[in-house]
């Protein structure tokens, strides 16, 4: 059986009553040699046949997969569905493939139903299992010039840090004449699903010019595995496999009892392959991710310019006297949303972090008209009002804290939490009704933008009567997803932002329910380019909210903001720091902050110009995908001189940011493959000559396919457009 979609070929092989997947690639070459290794496209563990027979997946972690018998193949216009049954365990397993329109990718959904008369205990259900990769070509599979694995590291204020390695560097290498058991694992435990890695992978066959890519979509535990299945002996016959899972006792402590007739649905995963390398993989993943995004309640569904009063600005201390000049400045600059971040619900003297959950406006921060008066001023200035929430937690000093224990996540019968906060349990209908009421009330006040933050992580799991704590956590995550789906139907005119202390919860399980994703809490402007360049690969660019904070008040200076602004005024007069900030945000979703109400004429004009340019570019941004002419930037490299950009093949247009940090070089040459042999034009599009003393030099070499730029000053940035 050969299934084709876009550039992909997926080949299955029948052996009696069994159907196994054998190959995934773009050419079909070498597929016949892989047919003896065909295996059902799902990995299962059913107690007592526990999932953990071997250290890697060569023969399957358990014998359950080997016992699956094909019952039905259902072809559909948008994909196909395979139904397997296991005669011993009396389970039905459905593996549904959904082709992604316009992208060389598919979504895979796996469900398991107990068709027997007794409960069964599952201890592993893969979301995706695929093999038959990297078998073409003449190089040995472990040759470092053959396969490269690209993965993304994450940490707080240091998101989007991409790395690339060969299989042997990662621990997958040949050792004997027996089948290979080595594998490389990436995983996460808890609800900060992107606190260590992003749950996506790119595998590049450098020799043959093919690339495979995938992601798993859950905010709970997850695990990704790359290994090799082979026949053993002296033969090189074999191929790479990938397993993505979020329901595994071995890799996250998950197990679940299924009653007769009950079905378990594993979290969704997506995968694909294409000709090319890393850049082509991200292009296809970006096309796929765009199919998950919702239309915005704005004219033309345009992503609005947001001003948020938190980062390098008010730092969670909004008052009438500080907000009014910021609202006026943001409106004059061209912002379309003004968002009041944390603190709007607490008194001036209280520790508002301990009172989260009641969400009542402060009585002493906003003057005689209170918060409604401030929201009215925002609307009067032509902007949508926004507020910050953290709707999954409750502070110990909140009235909400007095609710019964079944309102909260429990472990060992006790409420889970830290730093005077505990977590609400969205599996409880009363919790959902309460939070719906909060959002209804804010929407009635005119709030049209909500930033939902998530500053702590539920770790190993929560109490669950029918399974492990990890199973309870996955059920809780699904319940919160369902709640957000209800909210979006209930308030279709409200824009939602997802923030998890920056991007600590940036998986596409949660992101398909939100319109904007915070990319970081990074507050040092010259460190942000390394985060921006990485985010263009982990997110659809228009989905990625990137801070631009001219005239910053850094966190240590927040109590002496006026003095800090006066101290720094002289070194900001040339506008270069403002330009750098604006360039950071012009490749993605521009997300403004900083004390722009204190900007001088030149700096304010640069802010206005940058916002106006973003409004011109935002249609292009949502139709383009990332390029990295000089590779990914690293956040620890203060000497960096780097670039990142967006490319649209249909328009023949690229927009490229160039950042010079403390590099001693003034010139940087950018290889641009799309230039080679084509007539082209290049120009600087930000800043304009009217607002900057220095214009960067730029020269094209179409025959070599390069753009060379000159930035004379350290810690400077410029934005260029290239047309072919």
TrEMBL record:
SUPFAM superfamilies: (Trans)glycosidases
Pfam family, one: Melibiase
GO molecular function: alpha-galactosidase activity
Signal sequence coordinates: none
Gene Ontology biological process: carbohydrate catabolic process
Superkingdom per UniProt: Bacteria
Record's protein name: Alpha-galactosidase
